[in-house]
Amino acid sequence: MRYVAAFLLAALGGNTSPSSDDIKTILSSVGVGVDDEKLDFVMSQLAGKDINEVVASGLGKLASVPTGGAVVASSGGAAAGGDAAAPVEDEKEPEPESEEESDDDMGFSLYDKNRKSSRNKLI
User: Fold this and answer.
1) I need a labelling partner for 121 at 20 to 30 A (CA). Which of 31, 58, 98, 105 fits?
2) How far apart are CA 69 and CA 29, in angstroms?
3) Helix extents (H) in the chain
4) Would you say the C-alpha torsion 7, 13, 16, 20 has a positive or negative sign?
5) Eight-state DSSP code of residue 27
6) What pLDDT does 61 receive?
7) How far apart are CA 60 and CA 72, in angstroms?
8) Distance of alpha carbon 10 from alpha carbon 80, whole angstroms
9) How far apart are CA 81 and CA 63, in angstroms?
């Protein structure tokens, strides 16, 4: 994945056909090691291809990849069309806090008249 990401970074930077050395330079600039065998494989797969076409062809494959969360059984019509309205969630009004719960200072205050400061103890 790191090799593909570096290839995409080089392509976004204007280098339409990055070399292995370009990929190594990008990866080493952020302290990532390079496995030459894996890099050669990625470069052979991307050789002579337009990166925009590679990304476009991969989008269809990406649609079938599970992304976690709940599985929704669907006939595909609503998911593909996008015309179905999203369910509206009811908003609950927050309950007001009682007097006891909102007393964060537990009855003590910095400006309490009965509180003696450490300075008064010395005098």
Assistant:
1) 105
2) 36
3) 2-12, 20-29, 36-46, 51-62, 77-81, 118-122
4) negative
5) H
6) 82
7) 19
8) 33
9) 14
Determine the pLDDT at residue 80: 53
Q: What is the pLDDT of residue 21?
A: 92
Residues of the chain with pLDDT under 50: none
Contact, 14 vs 30, CB < 8 A?
no
CA 74 to the chain's CA centroid: 27
Q: Residue 1 and residue 93: Cα distance in Å, rounded? A: 46
- Are 3 and 23 contacting, i.e. CB atoms less than 8 angstroms apart? yes
d(CA 83, CA 77): 9
Structure tokens at 19: 């070399």
Amino acid code (one letter) for 72: V
Tens digit of each residue's pLDDT (9 = 90 or more) over 31-57: 989 999 999 999 999 888 888 888 888
pLDDT at 48: 87
Tokens representing residue 69 in the block? 């969360």
Extract the tokens encoding 41: 């494989």
